[in-house]
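Board notes (copied after class):
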Amino acid sequence: MANSDRTSDKILQELRRDGRISNLALADRVGLSPSACLRRVQDLENRGVIRGYRARLDPAQTGRAYVVYVAVGLSDHSKAAQEGFEQAMLRAPEVTECHNVAGVFEYILRVEVADLPAYKAFHTETLGTVRHVRSITSYMVMGSPKDERS
């Protein structure tokens, strides 16, 4: 990160752990006065280093506990085919991440649904209907020993 130092790094680490931490508690944890800490956080926000704050949801409570990573290959590698696929994924609420990658497949998706039947419906009714999709390889998550989003 440009213009970073150890104190800013500590602030970011604490905010990643708890985005709702009070400025007073944050200042105490990183060894700054509350006013200096607030200035630093505001500077990080203004420079776009901190792009926002989010709520961490319980996947089981929201009906999205079944996680599948999906590798998608396209039959057409044109810009139009990629844009069409990306637009379809933007419209799919089950897709929480869509990454264009280099390698055997063109895309890796993170799909969150309630259960296997819900994933089958997404696989068949959404992915299976997108033009130029050549291959779909599904990787069901069995456990997550490390997931910094939760």
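Comment from the instructor: DSSP finds six helices and four strands in the chain. Strands lie at 66-74, 95-100, 107-113, 133-140.
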